[in-house]
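job 3f2a | input accepted
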Amino acid sequence: MVFFDQESFIEQYRLSQTLRGLESQKEFYIEEIEKNEITIELLETDSSALEKFAREKYYMKKDNEEVFVIIDD
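job 3f2a | predicted structure (73 res):
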């Protein structure tokens, strides 16, 4: 005789699959946080890296320059 309630095998399997998915997401976000911490440390200590980051990410420029953005499809 099998009972289907909140402790059933099907529910336990579904919950374990959800747990595995969440654990993989956790690992991804931990790696992203570590990458961002390294980037922040570099940008706080190296002014040339900060300038390069601002130019590439936010298209900032000096007063006597023009910036052309080329988008590759």
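job 3f2a | The chain has a mean pLDDT of 89.
job 3f2a | closed
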